[in-house]
Amino acid sequence: MNIILLGAPGSGKGTLSEFLCEKKTFTQLSTGDLFRDNISNKTDLGLRAQEFINKGKLVPDSVTNSMVEMYLNNKKKDLIFDGFPRTDDQALALDDMLKNLKEKIDQVVYLDIDESTLMGRLTGRMICQICKRSYHKINRKPLKEGICDFDNGTLVVRPDDQEDKIKIRLEAYHNQTAPLIKFYKDKIIKVDANCSPVELYNRVEKILGS
Ligand code: AMP
């Protein structure tokens, strides 16, 4: 089963993917994480993507689509698409890629969240440099300050989690990504994401079944 998680930055896609991968047999495909890995490894793709990411803008479709296509050569099923697709062009490209692999998207889970919650979530966020787990300075504190509970990795604030960048990212979400709700109208399931990560997982698990 392949699932897309669709929702604004800060709606809980990353943490929900973490839980789904821990408790079920999914693998998370996070384009944001893949870009960040490429940036830390200073690859050509990372260098191209970095200028867009640091401004809060979307990376061009051609770059993003080829990165996903490469990923799908190794792992093609039981995927959770976290942060991809984010544009019509990406959604069409994903359809083609999956058709070639005789796979498909089974469900699209739309995390519906109040805009007023997002800014607080994103400005307090910290990410483990090693496993990419997400923490929050108020809502999801690590046991030891600045250190990941799972692998002792250092927690860092993402450069694009600054208020001015968040505004640009939310604009990109509204203009380019939210229209995908219509694109996937036959497969979409809307979930109220104004809740804790555990509650969100429970809500989604009920929908997906065992
Ligand atoms: P995320 O970790 O999903 O919040 O993504 C962080 C940033 O990576 C985004 O703000 C974009 O700059 C870039 N990015 C991630 N996924 C995509 C995508 N599907 N298309 C274009 N840019 C993306």
Describe the protein's architecture and organization:
With 210 residues, the protein is α/β, with parallel strands linked by helices. It has a domain at 3-114 and 177-208: P-loop containing nucleotide triphosphate hydrolases (Rossmann fold). Helices cover 47% and strands 16% of the residues. The protein is built from 9 helices and 8 strands. The chain has helices at residues 13-23, 31-40, 44-53, 61-74, 88-100, 115-123, 163-177, 180-183, 197-208; strands at residues 3-7, 27-30, 79-82, 107-112, 125-128, 134-136, 155-156, 188-192. Strands 2-3-1-4-8 form a 5-stranded parallel β-sheet. A 3-stranded antiparallel β-sheet has the order 6-5-7. Strand 5 and strand 6 (134-136) form a beta hairpin. The chain binds adenosine monophosphate. Adenosine monophosphate is lined by residues 9, 31-32, 35, 52-53, 57-59, 64, 83-86, 90, 160, 169. Residues 9, 31-32, 35, 52-53, 57-59, 64, 83-86, 90, 160, 169 line the site of adenosine monophosphate. Its main location: cytoplasm.
